[in-house]
Write a sequence for this structure.
């Protein structure tokens, strides 16, 4: 089929959006470090406030600029240096109440709790604002525009190119393209993906777009249901992803025919139909995008579904840092220690960003598999495609099928 | 069409099954994050 064009367009938009996201993520990262590790730019005189934040610090915070908190973060009391209780001016311990509160604020307090769970000891998580703002801001905005942009491009393509018709005379003969089981796998994947996409968007965008329309009460109901569906339908998607991979990977290894197909733009701009096997280069790109991005979404999704149990990012960042690439591309050294909550924040962002990219690619796929091309839908509908369609879009595959049929007893036209 | 409908039904069955299974295992994501009680400081 000819979905390569859509795919490339999708990729370009996705890449642009991704660059946008990353560049707006960078100041966010600086903010994330606001809580302690920003290197002091100039030595600040704190004598007037006895080490407490200065007016300048407060102004910087109000402007959303990084603030050097190292002094406060370190100022959490010193039991070993405290005067002994029996000494003059001896204290009950080395930490005053303000010391303790600072300790909590900067995650330095010695917390013991009976609550079991990896995050139970974090009493104040002060690194969430940049995440919240990024999620409600650029992620929602650019993500939304990516999807709308993709739909717009597809509409434009439809207006210009129209439906890709079967060029030749239809034969009325049908050949089997996908077996029942394969179509079941495809619809398990497609159905769950669409449900996950919609419920995911409700979670991300509902506050902004649905509450104003329906009010908090009704939205709360929908959001709750949406979350239940999203969490539980995810398993169907993961199962289907494995099925699709196992069933179709043999047909999706790149080979020489792909180069020719790509060079001819899939035959989309005239110049005849390039030969293709069971899947053409465009479809192979769809397949691998689904597998790779789908797997990445699944892994980050599981990390979110079992909070704090499967932290992924501090480790990933450490590995990335060791390659030197983040520094080379101006991201500096990525954060290698995170609170459990920060891990979840990164997992959420990654989950959403990759999902947006895959949704945009899949929109193009849905278009070409239904409205965009005559005869394509049958492959996943009844499983039987018009022979002429197959000859035009998958000529080498038809030859293979014919050869196999030639060996089989004659008249063995496969039936539904 | 049949494969599609069976696929959609399977999605619902898997979802309900997953919910039931996690429930049986006593898992609740909501209970992971909060330390609702018994926090002690220092020592
Ligand atoms: C209503 C929505 C959808 C329609 C109408 C549709 C239609 C189709 C059709 C007709 C084919 C077979 C193409 C051929 O005969 O060569 C196909 C294949 C495929 N579909 Fe879908 N699909 C839909 C949704 C999805 C979704 C949501 C995903 C993944 C998340 C997906 C993943 C795939 C993959 C990986 C293939 C094999 C590679 C390819 O043909 O591009 N599909 N789809």
């Amino acid at each position: 089929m000819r979905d390569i064009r859509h795919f490339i367009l999708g990729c370009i938009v996705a890449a642009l959006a991704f660059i946008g996201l990353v560049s707006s993520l960078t100041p966010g990262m600086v903010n994330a470090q606001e809580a302690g590790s920003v290197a002091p730019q100039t030595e600040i005189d704190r004598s007037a406030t006895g080490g407490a934040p200065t007016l300048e610090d407060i102004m910087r915070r109000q402007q959303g600029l990084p603030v050097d908190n190292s002094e406060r973060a370190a100022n959490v009391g010193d039991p070993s240096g405290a005067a002994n209780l029996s000494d003059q001016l001896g204290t009950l311990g080395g930490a005053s109440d303000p010391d303790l509160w600072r300790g909590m604020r900067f995650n330095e307090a010695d917390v013991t709790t009976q609550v079991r769970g990896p995050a139970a000891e974090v009493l104040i998580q002060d690194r969430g604002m940049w995440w919240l703002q990024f999620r409600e801001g650029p992620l929602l905005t650019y993500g939304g525009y990516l999807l709308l942009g993709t739909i717009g491009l597809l509409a434009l393509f439809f207006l210009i190119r129209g439906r890709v018709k079967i060029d030749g005379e239809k034969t009325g003969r049908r050949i089997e393209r996908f077996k029942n089981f394969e179509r079941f796998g495809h619809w398990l994947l497609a159905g769950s993906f669409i449900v996950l996409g919609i419920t995911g968007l409700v979670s991300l965008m509902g506050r902004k777009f649905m509450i104003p329309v329906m009010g908090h009460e009704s939205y709360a109901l929908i959001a709750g249901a949406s979350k239940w569906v999203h969490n539980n339908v995810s398993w169907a998607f993961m199962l289907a992803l494995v099925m699709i991979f196992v069933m179709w990977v043999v047909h999706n290894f790149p080979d020489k025919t792909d180069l020719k197909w790509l060079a001819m733009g899939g035959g989309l701009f005239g110049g005849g139909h390039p030969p293709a096997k069971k899947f053409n280069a465009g479809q192979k790109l769809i397949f691998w995008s689904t597998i790779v991005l789908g797997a990445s979404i699944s892994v980050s999704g599981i990390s979110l579904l079992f909070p704090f149990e499967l932290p992924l990012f501090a480790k990933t960042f450490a590995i990335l840092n060791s390659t030197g690439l983040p520094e080379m591309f101006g991201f500096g050294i990525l954060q290698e220690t995170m609170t459990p909550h920060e891990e979840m924040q990164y997992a959420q962002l990654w989950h959403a960003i990759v999902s947006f990219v895959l949704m945009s690619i899949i929109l193009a796929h849905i278009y070409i598999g239904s409205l965009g091309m005559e005869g394509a839908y049958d492959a996943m509908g009844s499983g039987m495609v018009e022979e002429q369609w197959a000859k035009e879009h998958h000529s080498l595959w038809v030859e293979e099928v014919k050869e196999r049929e030639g060996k089989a007893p004659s008249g063995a036209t496969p039936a539904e | 069409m049949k494969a599609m409908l069976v696929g959609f039904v399977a999605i619902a069955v898997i979802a309900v099954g997953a919910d039931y299974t996690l429930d049986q295992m006593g898992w609740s994501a909501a209970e992971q994050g909060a330390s609702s009680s018994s926090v002690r400081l220092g020592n």
In short: Chain B touches chain A at residues 1-4, 6-8, 10-11, 14-19, 27, 29, 31-33, 35-43 (CB under 8 Å). The longest strand of chain B covers residues 39-41.
